[in-house]
Specification:
Layout lengths: L1 E2 L11 H14 L9 H21 L7 E4 L2 H12 L5 E5 L4 H14 L2 E5 L10 H4 L6 E7 L11 H11 L3 E4 L18 E5 L11 E5 L37 H17 L1 H20 L4 E3 L11 E6 L4 H12 L1 E2 L1 E3 L4 H7 L7 E5 L6 H18 L2
Parallel strand pairs: 1-11, 3-4, 3-5, 5-6, 6-7
Antiparallel strand pairs: 2-8, 7-8, 9-10, 10-13, 12-13
Helix pairs in contact: 1-7, 2-7, 3-4, 8-11, 9-11
Amino acid sequence: MIYLDNGATSFPKPEAVYTFMDQFFRKNGVSPGRSGYDLSIETGNIIEDARKALTRYFNGKDPKRLVFSLNSTDALNLAIAGLLKPGDHAITTMIEHNAVLRPLYHASLYDNVAVDYVPFDGKGFVDPDDFISKFKKNTRLVVVNHGSNVIGTVQPIREIGKLCKEKGIPFLVDASQTAGKIPIDIEAMNVDVIAFTGHKSLLGPTGVGGLYVGEDVVIHHSRAGGTGVKSALRHHLEEYPYRLEYGTLNTLGIAGLYAGLKWVLEQGMDKIHAHEIKLTKKLRDGLTRIDKVITYCADDLTDHIGVLSFNVKGFEAINTGTILDGDHDIACRTGLHCAPLVHERLGTDKIGGTVRIGFGPFNTEAHVDTVLNAIKEIASMFAK
């Protein structure tokens, strides 16, 4: 199988991740740091090493403010629920994933939170200046997707963050697609809170992600539970990371995430990213030479990640994907990709979305050649 659904979950993982997780679980499969015995302390130290490594990656200042969660969706829910109160106003974009859209919709439905949506242009980018007219006296949050999981565009986070900082409005960034692909410096990019997941470009397993919370940001509790420390307290702990961590952590997942991050940094993010963009360009160039194929927001791959969406004209995306899978053993993603506003803006919501190719570090030019030959066959045989 040629796996090209890395925008959903990266696969395969580096061998170093499999090895580290296996050894860790066999040796350290206990609760981290919650008991006084040596193995628990050792396990906790590995979790803290992962915290420190991720904090360095994001250029954060305090590893204690690196909070682990189930994934970026879980992290975004924690941040959104903890930053907004009834009657507040939030600004987001039409490039967002449902991990942002649905929590904001629920906040508008149940807590009277007003939400404004900034559109993206024909190339797939939002204009920072469009945020200015949407700022209100009660704006308490701006949340933006760093890299689109549908069209691969990387948004001008630094410029948007600068505007938020000038207004004193917390800026939350969804780095689900970009963490592990491109350098992220929250200080330079004016980011207050960043959400990430482990199972995509950080090359870890599913079921782990988190937040880095800036020092001046207060995220209120939306949950409560065990932390393993100060158990006599009736109220959930105020200090980080316990403030936003609940119950026993996914220690195996965090270990795998740690191993994935180390592998990415050892290989070099720039090298990995350049490889994936090279494949994306080869795919884009090949698709544009096939009659009846349309690509979306891919004319210029500057400020992009290795994600590309396309359709065979007159043919529903799901059928294209089924043929790629059944006849050519190519795994990709079709549909609306949990980002309905993107498809509404592109007009692809009316035709079942798009076919999405997401490259990873282990894909090759031969994989692209196979895809292009398959699409040529589909376009010639089935397109109207």
